[in-house]
Amino acid sequence: MRFSALKVLTQGLTGNRGWRAHWRDPEPAEAYDIVIIGGGGHGLSTAYYLAKEHGLRRIAVLEKGYIGGGNIGRNTTIVRANYFLPGNSEFYSHSLKLWEGLEADLNYNVMHSQRGQIGLFHSDGQRDAAIRRANSIRNQGDDAELLSVAQLRKMVPYLDYDQGRFPIYGGLLQRRAGTARHDAVAWGYARGADQLGVDLIQNCEVTGIDIVQGVVQGVQTSRGAIRAKKVAMVVAGRSSQVAAMAGMRLPIESHVLQAFVTEGLKPCIDHVISFGMGHFYISQSDKGGLVFGGDLDMYASYAARGNLPMVEHVAEAGMTLMPMIGKARMLRSWGGIMDMTPDGSPIIDKTHIEGLYLNAGWCYGGFKAVPASGHCFAHLLATDRPHSAAARFRLDRFRSGRGLMDEEGTGAQHNLH
Ligand SMILES: Cc1cc2nc3c(=O)[nH]c(=O)nc-3n(C[C@H](O)[C@H](O)[C@H](O)COP(=O)(O)OP(=O)(O)OC[C@H]3O[C@@H](n4cnc5c(N)ncnc54)[C@H](O)[C@@H]3O)c2cc1C
Description:
Layout: H1 5-13, E1 31-37, H2 41-54, E2 59-62, E3 78-79, H3 88-100, H4 102-106, E4 117-121, H5 124-140, E5 145-147, H6 149-155, E6 170-174, E7 178-179, H7 182-195, E8 199-201, E9 206-212, E10 215-221, E11 224-233, H8 239-244, E12 253-264, E13 272-274, E14 281-284, E15 289-300, H9 308-321, E16 330-340, E17 347-350, E18 356-360, H10 370-383, H11 397-400
Parallel strand pairs: 1-2, 1-11, 2-8, 4-13, 11-18
Antiparallel strand pairs: 3-7, 4-6, 5-6, 9-10, 10-11, 12-15, 12-16, 13-14, 14-15, 17-18
């Protein structure tokens, strides 16, 4: 079923009785060519591009819960391509280009909104760093503009420009950055993959990975054994646990990241705004809620939930930057489990086990990566060669120390990225 304006109109006039489920609910087959563990954004986009770009059909995505229940449905929906270092820069540039054609490609409204993202700076040093970053982004072919305080005051008048502690010196704007509706991205990829013959199997937890003499044979699941020529681990915050089923110890720690939403308000925040002196970023959803997030809880945990100290910490940062936010009532907060690597950059690679592949380490930036991650991982799975846009996301960089991509310049510590 294709969506179109005419379809919406005719369905509206005939009681909306003609819509069908977006994807089938198949029983798992005994064997597949490729089994993807994890039905989050990255697993679903991998399945979609495997089928679409490489013509593969015998593919299953095994999801222990339901499609959209993981981080793909929990993030603050920011999409941008303003990374600094080679490796990340070309990858996120590739991803933004895929985002720009995504709705037409999937025939699905993911509400991709290029409303612009502004990263604020608050000192001469931060301004220098922003200028360097802007040059790097432009060298990559993407857009970056430096904004003066006078320009900012016109565009975003609600910031506190006059407070003494963190004065605003200017901002780095990327106009093509913005947001997308996160769960619609999961649904769009799921529907696209299903239409190309991929089996999406929900409520199917992988409990073991079968390996004989260094070669993968398939997986054990809560719904029985499934044979597979290739197995792809794409489970975000659960990466260490799933890799341990294959006897692997990953350079990943899992940490909780929380997000918050207020009651619906009239449009007041037109862009995505990031505070430069605290971990605070905010945008307004199409329903009107102010959606914002902060820092990781600074300890490793698998608890996907919020807590009061972080509510206070993030609310303080919000009040410092835009005191008007104090008038809004916070409705909800939640947490998601982040797969943090020591350098803050991801992994898309083969493992030392033949037929076993790894996609992990998205930290708190993996939503914007969903299209390119699936695109590049599908390329690796289908051809056994890395895609040029993800060529530096090697697993062995943490063993050798060569090729680390420490984007934040904070050193090799998981919870600092
Ligand atoms: C609060 C918050 C804010 C964020 N904000 C942003 C942002 O603004 N911009 C941005 O780019 N990124 C952001 N992120 C990060 C982004 O959401 C993640 O990096 C990304 O979604 C992770 O990839 P995924 O979608 O595949 O993960 P998930 O949706 O978590 O998918 C992994 C799936 O694997 C499944 N799974 C796990 N173990 C098994 C098993 N044994 N068997 C079968 N299935 C299993 C899980 O159930 C889950 O559905 C944010 C994250 C959070 C939590």
